[in-house]
Amino acid sequence: MRFIKMLFSTVALLCMVGASTALSAHENDSVAGAHAEQMPWGIAGEAGEVSRTLEIRMGDDMRFRPSSLGFKEGETVRLVLHNDGKLLHEYVLGTKPSLEAHAQMMLKHPQMAHHEAYMTHVKPGQAGEIIWTFNQAGRFDFACLIAGHYQAGMVGSIEVSP
Q1: Does residue 140 sit in helix, strand or coil?
Q2: For the segment 52-79, what is each residue's pLDDT rounded down to a tens digit?
Q3: Alpha-carbon span 11 to 119, nearest angstrom
Q4: pTM of the model
């Protein structure tokens, strides 16, 4: 009986630590530890290579402003994301299929933690940033994948010209 109580206590403690870690990581607006990995929509950029900075606003109306962006292939930009709302929002770069798949996972696991260079979580009243090199021409997308936000239309598009 004593062993079972200790086992349950240990499992409960591990669950609390895991949930706390996932929550704090998801609410963290930093991508510290993110690594540069080539994605179909580009790769993490270096601050010294930034050619321009764009300000993007996010709000509780589930919209990005602006909602469409244009870049030239090879351009490295700093995206500064301002959360003007009272809810946590995020900005995730991707393709429509990758964003849809991730949005479905977020519905099932709303506290899921992720630290990729192409995404940032922004607390209410705060700002986050992504430095990204668009080294692939094409049409890409961005979205807030917090459960319900993507489904409410919190999406945008990117056109990268050759």
Answers
A1: strand
A2: 999 999 999 999 999 999 999 999 999 9
A3: 31
A4: 0.77
**Per-residue tokens: 113:** 């933690």
Convert the chain into a string of H (helix), E (strand) and C (coil). CHHHHHHHHHHHHHHHHHHHHHHHHHHCCCCCCCCCCCECCEEECCHHHCCEEEEEEEECCCEEECCEEEEECCEEEEEEEEECCCCCEEEEEECHHHHHHHHHHHHHCCCCCCCCCCEEEECCCCEEEEEEEECCCEEEEEECCCCCCCCCCCEEEEEEEC
Domains and CATH numbers, the chain: 2-161 (2.60.40.420)
**Is residue 94 within a helix (H) or strand (E), and if so which, with residue range?**
strand 89-94
